[in-house]
Structures are given as C-alpha cells and as structure tokens.
Amino acid sequence: xxxxxxxxxxxxxxxxxxxxxxxxxxxxxxxxxxxxxxxxxxxxxxxxxxxxxxxxxxxxxxxxxxxxxxxxxxxxxxxxxxxxxxxxxxxxxxxxxxxxxxxxxxxxxxxxxxxxxxxxxxxxxxxxxxxxxxxxxxxxxxxxxxxxxxxxxxxxxxxxxxxxxxxxxxxxxxxxxxxxxxxxxxxxxxxxxxxxxxxxxxxxxxxxxxxxxxxxxxx
Amino acid sequence: xxxxxxxxxxxxxxxxxxxxxxxxxxxxxxxxxxxxxxxxxxxxxxxxxxxxxxxxxxxxxxxxxxxxxxxxxxxxxxxxxxxxxxxxxxxxxxxxxxxxxxxxxxxxxxxxxxxxxxxxxxxxxxxxxxxxxxxxxxxxxxxxxxxxxxxxxxxxxxxxxxxxxxxxxxxxxxxxxxxxxxxxxxxxxxxxxxxxxxxxxxxxxxxxxxxxxxxxxxx
Amino acid sequence: xxxxxxxxxxxxxxxxxxxxxxxxxxxxxxxxxxxxxxxxxxxxxxxxxxxxxxxxxxxxxxxxxxxxxxxxxxxxxxxxxxxxxxxxxxxxxxxxxxxxxxxxxxxxxxxxxxxxxxxxxxxxxxxxxxxxxxxxxxxxxxxxxxxxxxxxxxxxxxxxxxxxxxxxxxxxxxxxxxxxxxxxxxxxxxxxxxxxxxxxxxxxxxxxxxxxxxxxxxx
Amino acid sequence: xxxxxxxxxxxxxxxxxxxxxxxxxxxxxxxxxxxxxxxxxxxxxxxxxxxxxxxxxxxxxxxxxxxxxxxxxxxxxxxxxxxxxxxxxxxxxxxxxxxxxxxxxxxxxxxxxxxxxxxxxxxxxxxxxxxxxxxxxxxxxxxxxxxxxxxxxxxxxxxxxxxxxxxxxxxxxxxxxxxxxxxxxxxxxxxxxxxxxxxxxxxxxxxxxxxxxxxxxxx
Amino acid sequence: xxxxxxxxxxxxxxxxxxxxxxxxxxxxxxxxxxxxxxxxxxxxxxxxxxxxxxxxxxxxxxxxxxxxxxxxxxxxxxxxxxxxxxxxxxxxxxxxxxxxxxxxxxxxxxxxxxxxxxxxxxxxxxxxxxxxxxxxxxxxxxxxxxxxxxxxxxxxxxxxxxxxxxxxxxxxxxxxxxxxxxxxxxxxxxxxxxxxxxxxxxxxxxxxxxxxxxxxxxx
Amino acid sequence: xxxxxxxxxxxxxxxxxxxxxxxxxxxxxxxxxxxxxxxxxxxxxxxxxxxxxxxxxxxxxxxxxxxxxxxxxxxxxxxxxxxxxxxxxxxxxxxxxxxxxxxxxxxxxxxxxxxxxxxxxxxxxxxxxxxxxxxxxxxxxxxxxxxxxxxxxxxxxxxxxxxxxxxxxxxxxxxxxxxxxxxxxxxxxxxxxxxxxxxxxxxxxxxxxxxxxxxxxxx
Amino acid sequence: xxxxxxxxxxxxxxxxxxxxxxxxxxxxxxxxxxxxxxxxxxxxxxxxxxxxxxxxxxxxxxxxxxxxxxxxxxxxxxxxxxxxxxxxxxxxxxxxxxxxxxxxxxxxxxxxxxxxxxxxxxxxxxxxxxxxxxxxxxxxxxxxxxxxxxxxxxxxxxxxxxxxxxxxxxxxxxxxxxxxxxxxxxxxxxxxxxxxxxxxxxxxxxxxxxxxxxxxxxx
Amino acid sequence: xxxxxxxxxxxxxxxxxxxxxxxxxxxxxxxxxxxxxxxxxxxxxxxxxxxxxxxxxxxxxxxxxxxxxxxxxxxxxxxxxxxxxxxxxxxxxxxxxxxxxxxxxxxxxxxxxxxxxxxxxxxxxxxxxxxxxxxxxxxxxxxxxxxxxxxxxxxxxxxxxxxxxxxxxxxxxxxxxxxxxxxxxxxxxxxxxxxxxxxxxxxxxxxxxxxxxxxxxxx
Lengths: 219, 219, 219, 219, 219, 219, 219, 219
Ligand SMILES: Nc1ncnc2c1ncn2[C@@H]1O[C@H](COP(=O)(O)O)[C@@H](O)[C@H]1O
Ligand SMILES: Nc1ncnc2c1ncn2[C@@H]1O[C@H](COP(=O)(O)O)[C@@H](O)[C@H]1O
Ligand SMILES: Nc1ncnc2c1ncn2[C@@H]1O[C@H](COP(=O)(O)O)[C@@H](O)[C@H]1O
Ligand SMILES: Nc1ncnc2c1ncn2[C@@H]1O[C@H](COP(=O)(O)O)[C@@H](O)[C@H]1O
Ligand SMILES: [Mg+2]
Ligand SMILES: [Mg+2]
Ligand SMILES: [Mg+2]
Ligand SMILES: [Mg+2]
Ligand SMILES: [Mg+2]
Ligand SMILES: [Mg+2]
Ligand SMILES: [Mg+2]
Ligand SMILES: [Mg+2]
Description:
Eight copies of one chain form a homooctamer.
Chain A (H helix, E strand, L loop, with lengths): L8 H5 L5 E2 L5 H13 L4 E4 L3 H10 L4 E3 L4 E4 L13 E5 L5 H13 L4 E4 L7 H5 L2 H6 L2 E6 L5 H6 L6 E5 L11 H8 L6 E3 L5 H12 L6
Helix pairs in contact in A: 2-3, 4-9
The complex binds adenosine monophosphate (4 copies) and magnesium ion (8 copies).
The site of one magnesium ion (MG) has 3 residues of chain C, from loops.
C-alpha cells in the first residue's frame, strides 16, 4: 500500500513508469505490475534477477523475461507506439558490457523504437569499428556502452553526425573504480555531440534515445 | 605550426572544429582563426576572456565578442544551416549560472539552430518554473543549466517529453566540490530522458542539442 | 563486561541510550537490554536483523520487533513522554527508501512524538507531492528521506515553513556512490531551513525531529 | 533583466529571498536590493566583500555592512518578526571560525530571532566549554561552528537537550580538505539530536535555527 | 618457499617479524610459524580467523588463540623483554571498537609491555571519560581507538601529557566511509601530541606504543 | 575580545597554547602574544609570513622570526624545560621539504628539547641515508618529513628501534594530490613503530616528539 | 555469437588477443578458446578461477591451468617467439602479492620471454633486496609488484638502469583503499625510469615488459 | 648547505640527478647547477619559469632555456651518450598538451636519445593519426601525451608493437579533475603494452623512454 504509482507519467513524459526491481521483493513487483496491467499500461521492470523473475512469472505468466538484460516485460496492452525518425543503434566495446547494452535494447523495443546492435568492437582493434561505418552513419541516435577506459564513445563521436549517448559500465578492476574511469572519459570527451548517463544505466540511455528518436518530440 | 586543424570535421560530424580558448595565447587564436577563415569555415571560440578577445579583434575585426558567454565568433562565411525540428530551449536555475547558459545559447545560434532562454527559475521557487510549462512543452530539446544541488533537471524531466541535456555548473561552495554535487544529481536523476555533459560545458550541451534538433540526423 | 552504559543520557540529552545493533552479537544485545530494563529505561535497538531479533525475543519476549525498520523496542517502562508542539511528518521519495523512513518513524514513536508518513512521492511525478501540500504545511517538523539524486528535500523546502531534516539514502547504483550523491544534493540545497544527517540515518533524523518537536526544548 | 526574484518566498517558507553575493557584480546586487526595497521586503545579502559593499552603500546608503560576517542588510521595512520560543545560541571552536559564526548571528538577527554567542571554546581545552554549561542548557536551539576536526558539535550534543545544527568550516590545512574533515565528523556524530549544513554555511544554519525557534512552526 | 622471513628484524627494529594472516592460507601460516619457532623467535600472527586458527593449533598446539583480537601467539621462546617506562593505556570509544583495541592489547603483551584498558567511554557521555582522569594522567603512552567521528582522541589529547596514538576504526556506516571520517578527525586534531596509524591498525599502534614505552629507545 | 586563551594548557598537556598564525591578522597575533607575555608564558606562533612577522616585531621587538620555518617566538620567560631522554632527530627527503622540517625543529627547540637534523636524503639515492645509520640509531625519537611518494619513513622504519613520526608534505604535483599520496604511503607503511600527523604539520610532529622525548611522560 | 575476436591483433601489436576471464562464463571461454585454437593462435586466459578452469579443461584438455596465477593457457600452436634482449625480472614485496606477480610471470612465459622471479623482499627489511643487487643489475626490464605503501618500486628505481614497470596491488586494508595507496606511491616516485600499470594488473605489466624486451621493437 | 646532491646517480641509474625547479629559489638553482658543472655533470632543470630562468642565466650564461618546455639545460660537459635502439616518438593529442610533450622532448635530447614529435592529432579526428601510421610503426618507443579524456594512448596501443608510455595532462576542466580523468583512462586501457607516469610528468616519461631505448639496458 505504500507504493504510489504515477499512472500519468506516460502522458506527461512519453515514458510510462518503469519498475526498478533491484531492491523490490517478488511480492512488490507483482503488486505494482498488476496495478499497471489493470490500468491498461505496459509492464517494464529492470534489474530483475532470474530467480525473482521466475516467481513473478508463476503468478503473471503473461510477463516475458529477457535473460541477458535481466528485464521483465508485459507489453500486450501497448497498442500504438509513436512514429520514429529512424533506427537507434547500440554499440558496445567488450563482451562484458553486453548486459548493459541489452538493458538498453529491450527498453527501446518495449517503448516501440526500431533498434539495431553491434557488440564487441572496442578501440583496441579499431578496424572492427571502421568496418561498420556505414551502419553508424545511418543511425538516427547512437548509444555507446563501454567500461574500462570507455574511449569508444569519443572515437564514434568523431565519425558521425547523430547524437550519441554514452553509457559507462562498471566492467574493469582496480583504478576503474566501478565505472568511474569510463564515466570521466565520456564526460571529458573532446568529441562534441555526446552526452552521458549513469554508470550501467542502459535503461536511462534507452529513454533518452527514445525521446530523441520520436518523430514529434513535443508531443 | 604545431596545430593540426581538422578541416573536415564539419563534414564528418556536422559540427566544425571549435577553438578552445582557455589555454591558448592571443597569437594561437589568431593563427587558427585565420586558417579557418581562409578555408571558408566559421570561427567559433569558447572560453576567451575579455582582454584576449579585444586583442584578437584588433587583428580580426570581423570577429564578434559575446561578453556573457566569453565567446568570439565570425560567422560571415557560414551560408546555410541545416533545417531544424523546432526550437531548442535553455533553462537555468540561478543568476550565477547564466554564463554557462549563454555559452550554450551563443553556440546554438552559431550553429544555426533556433533557441529560446528562460533564466533564474530554480526549484526553491517552483511556481516560477510552472509558469512556463507551455513553453517547456513546445521545445524540441531542452538544456537545463544548474549548480549547487542541480535538481532543476529532474523536475523538468518529470514534466515534458522532449529530450533533456543537463549541464551541472561549478556555482556553489563547500560540499558542491566545484560542480560535482550538481553533476551527481543529474547522473542519478530518477527522471528518464535526461543525459548529462561535463561541468560548465555549455558548449558541449549545445552541440548535443544541435545534433538532436537537426531535421535530418543522419546527414 | 566491557560495555559501559550511559544511564544518565536521557536526563542530559532527552534521549535515552539506544543500542546500535549492527555490529553486536545476540548476547551483547540481550545483556545491554537487560541492564536497561533493570534500571527502568526503555529498550530501543536499531539495525537488528530479523534472525537476531528472533533470538533476542526468545529470551526477552517483552521486546517488539519492527520488521520494515529492523528495530527492536521494549517501551513498557516508559511512563511519560514530554508534550509536543505538533506532528512530525516523514516523507520518502521511492519505495526503496521505506526502510530508512520506517527507522525514523519507529524511533519517533518510541520517543513519544506524534508522527505521520507519506511515502513514494518523488519529484519525477511532482503532482503526487503537491496533492499533500496541506498536510505538509501543518507539520511542526518534516523528515525527507530520499536516495538517488535526493532532490525531494529541496522541493519540499521551497514549499513550507517547518524545519526540514534531510536523510539521504544509499538507494541507487553507479554514480550514486552509496548515498553520496543524495547527501551532496541535500547539503547544497538552495532551499534554506534544511539540515542533513548521515546516509541512511533514519534514527538520527528522528532524534533531531524529536528534539525540535518537544514543547520545552531546554528541559 | 535575467534575475527572476521570488517575492513570495517569505510567505511560502517564512524566510525572504536572500542575495548570495559571491558571484554577483555590484550592479546586480544594487538591482536586486532595489527591487526588494521597492516591494517592501528586507535586504539581506551574504558573501559581500568589503570593497563591493562600499560601492553598494554609495548608491543605497540605507544598507548596513557587517564587517566580520561579510554581510549587507537593510531591515528598515521589516516591521514585525514572528515570536520565538527562546534564545538561539551560537558556539564556535576557534578564532578562525568567527566569520562563519558571525554570518549565522547576523542572519538570525535580520530574521528577528534573539541570539547569543560564545566563541573560541574548542575541545582542546574542554574546561572552557564546561564553564558555559548553564547558558548551553537554556538555549532553545544551538549552532556549533567548527573547522579542523569539528568535534565540538558531538561534545555539545552529549550535554544538552536542545536541537543542534553543526556548521563545518573550511578552517584547516592538509587533510582537512577544505572542510570535508569537519563535515564528516559532524555527519558521523554519535551524539543524536544533531543535523548538519554545508561547509561554511552560517547562513543556512541560521535559517534552520530560525525555523526551529519560531513559536509557531506551521505558520 | 617464496616467503623470505626477516629473522634479524627484532635486532634492527626491536620488533620481530609478525605474520599478517589475512591473505595467508593455513599452510602458509604454519610454515612461517615453524620457521620462527625453529630460530627461537616468538610467533605473533594478526588477522587470523577462528577457523584458520583452530587448524593451525591442530598442528602447532603451543600456539594460543586470542578470540577477540583474532590473533595467534606462541611466546614460549621469548625470554626477556626490555624494561619499560610505565604502563601503556588503551582507551576505546564504543563496544564495536573492542576488536581493534584488543589487537593492540595482545600485541603489547606479546612484546612484553605492561598495558591497561578502559573501553566504551566515547564522548557522547563525557563523564565516563572524566571518571578515569587519574588513570589517564599516569599512563606513559595512550592508544585511543575510535570509529564513527573519532573525536575521543582529541578530547583525551586536551587532558594529558603522555603521547597519544590514534587508531581510527571502520565502525560506522554511510559517510564514515569505512573509517575515513575517523581518520581525518584524528589527523586534523587541534590537540597536539597526537599521531595516527592506519584504520583498524591496532597492531601498528601497539608497535608505536611499545617503541615509545621502552626504557632505552636507542637500544 | 573573542579569543579565549587557554592559559592552563601547558599544565594540563605539557605544551603551551601556540598561535596558529595562518588566518590571523597582525593585530590578533599581537593581542594574543601580549596576553601570553603578560601571564608569563612563552610566545610560539606558526605559519606567520615574513611581512606579518615584521609588523609584529615593530610592536613586540622581543619576538624572534625564523625565516625558513615561518615562525615567531619569544621564549624569554621560559625558565625551565623538562629533562629529556635524548636527542630528537629530524630527517627530510628533499630540499623542498625543508620548510616543514624547520617548523618541527624550531618548535622542538622552543619546547626545550635537544634536536638534530639531516636533510635531503630521499630514497632515490639510498646510500645518502645509509651513511647516517649511526646517528639514526642513537636518536630517541625520529621525525621523517617527505613529500611526493613519501617512502623515506618506511625505509627508516626498517632500520631503527626509535619511534618514528611521519610528516607527509604537499610537495609534488599531479597525482600527489597536495600531500595525499605521501600521507597514504605513511599510513600503509609495512614498517611498524611509525605513526603519522597531518600533511605539512611539522608543528604537530614536534609536539608528539617532545611528548615522547620527555624524561617523565606522566608529568 | 556476440564476441568479435580480433585475430589480427598479434600482427598489429605483437601480442595476441587474451581472454579476460573474470566476467565470462565457462561456455564463453570455451567458445573463444576454440576459435583461437582453430585459427592457429595460442590461448591465454587471465582471471579464471579454479572451478571454472576445471570445467574448461574437461572440454579442452590441452589447456594448462596455472593455479597461483589463475590463468589458463594452451600454447601448443605457438611456434616461434621473437628473440629477446635479455631476461625480464619480477620482484614482489610481500607473500600476499605473489598471485599478481605470477600473473605477470605466466604471461611473459606464454609470450616467449625469458623471466626470473624474486619474491617477498619488501623494504621493511632492505638487506633482503640488497642481497640481490647483482641479479637486479643484469635484468633487461624489471617488474615490481607491491601493495600497502608500494615503496619497493622507488627503492629499486634508485639502484638500476633497466626500465621498471610498477604494479600496485590491492593488498592492504583501511587507507590502502584497494590499491590506491600503492598506485599513488608509484605514480609519484622520485626515481625516474619507472612507469605504472593498473592495480593488480600483472598481465598488463607483462605485456609492457615483453614489448620492451623484444629484440626488434618495431617489428 | 642543506642540499645533498647525488653525484653517483648517473652511474647507478643511467640518469643524472635532475633539478626540480618548481619550489626552488633562483639561488638554490644556481648553487646546485654550479656544483653539477664543477663535478663535470650536465645540468638539467625542469619546471623553471621564464623569469627565474633569466636570472639564472645572468649568472650562468652557459645554460640554455627551452621556452615551451620550461627547462634549463647546460650540456657542454656531456661527452658521450649511450647508443640507442632507434628513435623515440612523442605524440600529443591537442595543442594545450604541447608544454608537457616538450618537457619530454627536451629531456630525451638532453639524455642523448634521438627523438621525433607529432602534435595535435587527438582522436576526435582519427584520420590525422592514421596518416602517421608508418612513422608510428617505426618508433622504438612511443610517448603519448593527452589530457581531457586521454584516449589517444589506447588507440595508438592498438596499432603498434612498440612499448607505449602514457602521460596524462591536466588540460581540461570540470570533471577532468586536474588530469585524473586522463590518468584513469590510461591506467584502464584495454590496449596492452602501455604503462603510465604521473599527470604532466613529461620528464618521467622521457626517462622511461630513454631507459627503454638504450642499446644496452643493463649497463
Ligand atoms: N534500471 C533503472 N535505472 C534507473 N532508474 C530506473 C531503472 N528502472 C526504473 N527506474 C526508474 O525508477 C523509478 C521507480 O522507482 P521505484 O518507485 O523505487 O520503483 C521509475 O520511475 C523509473 O523511471
Ligand atoms: N595487522 C597488521 N597490520 C599491518 N601490518 C601488519 C599486520 N600484521 C603484520 N603486519 C606486518 O606485515 C608484515 C608481514 O607481511 P607478509 O610478508 O605478507 O607476511 C610484517 O612484517 C608485519 O610487520
Ligand atoms: N601549524 C599548526 N598546525 C596545527 N595546529 C596548530 C598549528 N599552530 C598552532 N596550532 C594549534 O592551534 C590552536 C590555536 O587555534 P586558534 O584558537 O585558532 O588560535 C593551538 O591550540 C595550537 O595547538
Ligand atoms: N587480466 C587482465 N587485465 C587487463 N586486461 C586483460 C586481462 N586479461 C585480458 N585482458 C585484455 O582484455 C581483452 C579481452 O576483453 P574481452 O573482449 O572482454 O574478452 C584482451 O584484448 C586482453 O588484451
Ligand atoms: Mg573482446
Ligand atoms: Mg535567483
Ligand atoms: Mg515509485
Ligand atoms: Mg583558540
Ligand atoms: Mg557504548
Ligand atoms: Mg635532493
Ligand atoms: Mg614478508
Ligand atoms: Mg587540436
């Protein structure tokens, strides 16, 4: 009874309330998801571990679990998405960054946006990136996910005109300080046309990308 | 002779090379500006103090100085801008944040984008913000400039559908740690559809906004 | 035998010695609780996990366990509370902040103060807060509990005359740095009439609120 | 013209808008002060250096300058203050902390609250503090200003029932990190009934103390 | 075979090599302990968990385990200690600091120094400390162990002539940052005659105290 | 009139109140010095810049200025010092550390202790240190002053039996972070019998050394 | 299918792609290793825990597991190594640093370089280091692995002409901050001819040493 | 008289003692330089501002001042350099990084090593770097100097076999934290064969490069 769901959020901001599953019990997730289904809204839950997800699905079998993204969605009620300017593109630097990239991908799909992904093309082997220059130049918005030194975002930023959203990840050890190194790299990028979200925040990057990619941003 | 100007940058990224004036001498600024004028490009220089600017203007009188933004521009050669989706909107929280907001405004104008500003509407007096709800709901992209606790970006994020770019400023003292407090606030915002640039980086926010506001992002 | 209980603390400061349960064994908690019961004082223990609490209750069944607050109390001996100026109000931003808010609520009740709560009204959906303006304007002291960017305290601070105590929580991830982001937000608030306690310190906020809400502060 | 003064702030929060002088020019201070005088409000400006203040006074001779507090006030229009519960008390640890303590004192007086001060009673010579126990026990709210290790607040907290507001100062060197050491000390105090404001924020502490000391907090 | 024991350390520095058990396996501890016994030296091992200790004792039953200090010692071979100036005194602020205080006590005893302890006398109840003024004034060196805000060292420093060694502990949460708060407090103490060792380093404090308390420091 | 001098400090702690000159005006220093002279105490002032010192000397010509230590002393009234165990030794790593070493030397002399110095013997040229092994082995207490990586204290700690006081200095740049690097090195030293004072705190190190070197610590 | 192996890396940089095993599943490691074996490359995997390694070996029995280094290698296909200038030398300060030193040793051997090790010769017992001066003076490149205060690298740097690579380790507690203390020490070393890699990065140090030790660096 | 020059350093480490001019007076620099000239050694002084340099040259006209490097050298006495493996190459990212790059260049030349430079080729315009691939592939050791996000070192690391020394610079603002951002980027680089020196430490990078580039490292 303590949760106070913000049912008008989609009307106000274009993005429905999304359940942050990390600190919630199975019971709490079920309660909120039910309320959202009851009011005709989609269910989108992030940071739901496999075990929790399975228990939610026992009660709400209409929910779909996205393993690599640790997300739970139920989009049946979601009739129409806005129209979009083009395709969002998600790039990631190493295989360890994939879970964060997948959180972004599943969120974008849940919000209705077309999305494409290219993974494991970090700058230690630059040719891997340059191979994909054409796809990169055609995206309407690009999400770059990278841990360790996080320099991929700057390199992409020097190659294309689309707005770029950097997602630093906590991949690394020692002086990566749980993602701080990659975060600072992206904040200090000398490539303009790049903005940054919180460490590991694939969800937030997807919301920003969705907002940019909508055909009619004012409405 | 050590500077290696990147003349193709505008073709590759949509944004011409911009002179970062903070650590450059008057001579260096003049040399680079001349090279840019010679190759038909616009001159856009940020972080140029008043005294330096005056000396540059003695030699290059076609340059215009923007006092509050500490910027120097020479846009005569700039024939055509891309077409835009709508108007970019710049909000700032307090009067001390205005210089950063102005850096964003002058940059957007130099890049050709329509832009509007509303200043000094921080959340300690929320009614000031709510008065402007209509203008806010019509912007195609919003830049929010705020120092101290930097919470304005989150509040705006809960009210509109446009993508938001947060610019934390170094305004404050003590535990504001030169803008770190505002930066963290914006990175941790619970309002999705918000991404962040470096502390005091009005220029970078404008580039991101320009990139979002272009009619044809892939082009 | 190494514990040296401060039995006169209530006389000196108005607040009895409270057991910090986090680093104590079941045996230590029982020993101190017994000594407090023996000298006629109330038992108030914070940060007691469920399992530990159950073992304490086996020996001291007069103790009551508060699940969501992780607190153990035995207030039977507590005859009279001071009289109070009004009602303390506890607000919290998200459902994940509730345990900290509950630590504050149970502490205030144990100290005898009237208290009311409104939970899950973070600033991403400002209307939820504005709905409660009247209750807010009637409180004699307000505790605001918020994690992530922690901006709720500033927004409330701009709306009311009562003194506000901010409690940053460790809810969040990445650049929230275990509550540092919310802490800095509250310390740098541009809304005056706000002071802050340690991250997750619902107990300390309640003590400050109790001290403010007492009818006769010098007594 | 960019400043947007919040004339209703005193009605909403009990505290009028106060000018933060640090980053403002003489012209900006004069403009805002005039607008406040014109609308019948008091002028309270903090962080105004001596030279700036003199220039403001040339134009607005009704303003009074408080040297040690670096504050400028014009209270002529301020008819009636609320009634108060008692006397606020300001303690400071060393002579170097006095400017911050004075900022608190002048602010409290400007807001109409009775106030008393005891300075230079740091814990290296505890007897100096114990000498004043009676005054301490009679205050309705106490502000403790301390730099370096900032332990005075905890010691006072163990001796009295009044709510305490800690103000860490940037006095110190080396590992005091501009006030961070004193700030952490106060946030981690084991003496309950203590809350903290930003480093060097005598003004904020005074606003909190004023809010606590008002006879009718809801009004 | 990779360990290279420093058998002459006691001759050079007065303190034998001590085994740092935290990252060592049972086998490694046994090997080093055996080598020390073989060369007639004492065995002193710190940070040895209960389970590890039991397994060591199965093989080396002459070792004694100190539960609260998590230390293992075998002092049989230790014939003569130097003579001492007086008694070392260990004070600690809260019951949670006792394990660190005990590490100091057991180390001092193993090194042969007379030692006395007074625990749980933190500054929130100052009278507890003042009760022991006489004992404090008679110590030849004092170790003060304190977590959270760590202010006890400064208060003791203002009361006595003996050199004081501060040991900050990691007791606390939130902004105590694993002992950093107490460490900074002690480093910034305004009470001279105080020096500090690493967080939780009861062992190091004891070595310093031993070195001070020796009758003939040059010998 | 706000200063509250602690005239009994020498009786309580063995060390008289010392004037911290950094944030004090010439007038404040003169006032306090006069009060100390009047009550028969010595004057010891630290962190007094040359210009300030000259102005103080115009009024109080009995004060002596120590250029390299930036200290002002007037010891005429100081009749008798306690007797000492031996000689204190001050080592410093580089020539840039000398001002801090001199603050320690002048303080020790003012307090009456015998003292010897050896400067510029950092570990990049270890033979310079080893040349002085005999002097080192005869000191009753050693102060080691070092900036940058601050490793000299550990090396000395492995060579002698006397207690060592480490003074990290702010000498260095980049990742020395104003002395933090040297401070951490000393706190984490694997050489036991070493304790640390604040960055650049030659004064504090001297007080600790004085306290250790007194013949009768309890009195 | 998401991994994009960089098969040309050895040709471009002299070092083949190495599997970073920390965040990879057994399946992922097997897939990549197989692809590397299939293309004739060596398999070198770091940070593979014992249990994971065993499962990989069930499928790929040609892989060898290096217990202390937590590495898995399969070098059968590796025909010829480049020729080398001399022997690389690995020194480590304490027994707890050995796993990091071993990661460096196994990597160097896998890359074909001759390598020698001397362990547990930290500066608390300097004679242990000085004993090995001749071996030190003959190495063509030296890796120094040290935690806690990490001063060994500076001391070695003052004794030899070979280039030195410092590897700070996370060994320590309290103010060692997970290796930051040792990292800062090495970065601020006053001994020139020393460069540093990330905390615990034995692998990276070995790559740098290999690159230095190759007979023909340009090839 | 307090300076203790290490005349044998060149014999021990291959690199003569170099004067760190930042905190030294003109007199100190002259004294040390004279002693070095007298003993037949070269004079190499870093961080000498123009004004100081001029005054030194008045007395020692044989010294040469390197404006952009802020260095002073007198190499007349330097007869023979060792022979070298090839050419050292210095790359820098932006024009603001040139002073640090020049400190490295002048140091390498003073030590006798062949050296080449390519400046202003940061990754925002990657083609500028790729143009120089052949020169890069021929260097025997590479120094990469970069501020802001510092990603140039990683990109170069993915392209060549030579050992790379990264020098982060303090160029940048806001979240660059005086070079920390670039430092962390380089420490976390996913390109192996890269080691790092302190922020702005062109001198240290040159010493490491010299040490690598010597024909006979053991000698
Ligand atoms: N992975 C995520 N990262 C950041 N914010 C999230 C995430 N998932 C959901 N949210 C936001 O968190 C809010 C829900 O918080 P709560 O009330 O605690 O469930 C929603 O409004 C979402 O916008
Ligand atoms: N608890 C402790 N804290 C700090 N240093 C310790 C501790 N216990 C032992 N030591 C030191 O650590 C060194 C042993 O390191 P190791 O070679 O890893 O066993 C000894 O020389 C001791 O002086
Ligand atoms: N250089 C110094 N560093 C640290 N503390 C000092 C220093 N000089 C004086 N003090 C202390 O500062 C106190 C004086 O503070 P104040 O009341 O501000 O003058 C004295 O009690 C001294 O113990
Ligand atoms: N222990 C290690 N530390 C740092 N980098 C490593 C380590 N082991 C492997 N790597 C690098 O990590 C890269 C592989 O990353 P990934 O694509 O996530 O497997 C390889 O190119 C290696 O150069
Ligand atoms: Mg990969
Ligand atoms: Mg304003
Ligand atoms: Mg919610
Ligand atoms: Mg004082
Ligand atoms: Mg207790
Ligand atoms: Mg020197
Ligand atoms: Mg060892
Ligand atoms: Mg450039």
